[in-house]
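Exam prep: given the inputs below (a chain plus threonylcarbamoyladenylate), describe the expected output before reading on.
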Amino acid sequence: METGIIFVDRNVNKEETYAQAVDLLRNGEVVAFPTETVYGLGADASNSEAVAKIFEAKGRPSDNPLIVHVDSKESALKYVQNVSSKALLCMDKFWPGALTLVLDAVPGAFAPSVTAGLETVGVRVPNHPVALNLLKRCGFPLAAPSANTSGKPSPTLAEHVYRDMDERIRLILDGGATEIGLESTVLDLTTDVPVILRPGNVTKEQLEAVLGTVHLPAEAGSGAPKSPGMKYMHYAPDAPVYMIENNPALIDKAIAYIHSQGKEVALLSDREVTEADYSFPLSAETLYRSLRQCDDTEVDLILAAVPSGEAALMNRLEKAADHKWFS
Ligand code: TXA
Ligand code: MG
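Solution:
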């Protein structure tokens, strides 16, 4: 199967830009599209065969549910039930945006594989003109996980999607680089105190300003439902990643030591370090792109100079490094 690419560029509001994508999606095919977080791999969320193609294209385990994307709060409310006042507040304050809400699904609303058999569904309204245009023209919700091969960094450029999905899907809408660069915050609203299942651009502080107390999974007690996806190690490049304190003297020493062992090293950090064999930027916007760039090199090891104070970035970095620190 050939994978087509449509460059959206200045034609973001033109009908022609979306015609082929809508046609393919209506016919149960998979189309990749940009959101403000990362690129998604979309299919009609009510069509089991279409959704099966997403799992196949990604090599995704079937016990990991997909996020459903809709064009508005009004659309979302057709597919979820027992919606609390806190949930409505979140929709009003944070949608469209990088916040996925886990809510009770209307039975039968989605293909069972979308929710991995759970009674809940993760739903969000993306804040990206291409995603919104596409959703409006389809008129049905799109199940869309990140458009990477399972276990690879999420795609922040259409070329990342093409690398992973060439000959696996029919079409990619190329809307340029995604703005945020990390996946949405996932918030479980099925418990009395909402629980952040996955940190993202919408922070705990922002949520608490609207909702009052919000828990991280560790604070929610063992009975709380977990995000099935969080148990998988994500975002791992080919070479092992080690975190290191963002201290220039320490980093220089580490690089010298690695070189003395006859090995090559890539450094991810907030500044260029010429001693490293390769130096790539490190921020929420650039993490995944930099990890993928490491895969284009032959380095033996990747050092990541840990930035301070960004929960979502730290969470993804810990996963990429499998919690290893350089010593
Ligand atoms: O920013 C994003 O969220 C991107 C873009 C494309 O929207 N999507 C994304 O999807 O990251 P995915 O499939 O790669 O991650 C979905 C996460 C997983 O950790 C999954 O376990 C969790 O959301 N999730 C989905 N439905 C859930 C549910 N009903 N209960 C708990 N967790 C759920
Ligand atoms: Mg993903």
